[in-house]
Amino acid sequence: MDHDFFRHLHGSDQKTWRRVAYHLVLKGKREIAERTWLFSFAKPDGFSYQAGQHVRMTLEKLSSRAAGGNVRFLSFASAPLEQDLTFALRMRPSAFKQELDRLIPGDRVMVEMLIDPPQGAFFLDTQGVNATVFIAGGIGIVPIFSMIKSALDSGQERALILFYCNRRPEDAAFLKDLHALAQQHPSFKFLPTMTASPAWGGATGRITKAMIYDQVRDPKAARYYIAGLEGMVTDTQSMLRRAGVSKTSIISEEFGAFAAASHARRKKPQGYLWLLLLLVVLGGLHVGGGAYLAGVMPDNWQWNWTLIVGVTSAIMSLIALKLFLLRHFWRGRHRH
Fold this sequence. Notes:
By secondary structure, the chain is of the alpha/beta class. The protein has 9 helices and 12 strands. The protein has 3 domains: 3-114, Translation factors (Elongation Factor Tu (Ef-tu), domain 3), CATH 2.40.30.10; 131-255, Nucleotide-binding domain of ferredoxin-NADP reductase (FNR) module (Rossmann fold), CATH 3.40.50.80; 261-335, no CATH class.
């Protein structure tokens, strides 16, 4: 999940989003796939949320100065009607996850939620579509698992189709649960695929347009929910857009440290831009100043050499800015 983006929503830019905070008590934890654990918390009285929603979790016993900080944004794996609140995490050697792993039943964590989530948030909406198609990669299954259970709990009769890609069955969280749901509910079709498991008896390889078109009756009239690492999400968005699916029919969420790192990478060119502008201005001043001191400029120009250099630097800066914006415009079109 893109942690920088959600920090922005939760007020790092001083924008006012209404929030509510709770302390959750850990009830237990269990491994649900290789290196993936499910943490269960007691649901406080009056606690409500939407399937697919995320929380801002703070481990108060962990210092905010710890590597990576003591805060993460986590999506619910549980459905709103379930008794407990659950979150699933792929466990990696970070200070936050190591501290979370040390918690024992009875320990508490603090969570905050947005009361009025912004438009375009990762929530399920099946109105006006003939089918809802979920495309999940790895740990991106977490909010989708919540959505599917919630939709089935509500008696959803429209088609729900899940494409779920992993390397191996051992890596696939909720694999048995999803198979069981598909057997219990005729409206739900589950299509797992593995990319690195020769012994796997089902579909193999990445999720393709052919797979989707083979299972979705009218692909352009469906609504798509995509969750996974950034590369998988971006590639799937591009595939659907090339297939003629409208941008408004594609809702996505990126997961993992990869998304946060990518967000940081996307911000770096801005720093390089400011450095470029500074070099242009300093270079212009240096050349102009040298020419002035050397007497190269005509006498009637010497008094306003700074104006000439300033105008030249401004033009060069605008050209650099235009090239920067064009680069990001085309990259943005490619990403969608």
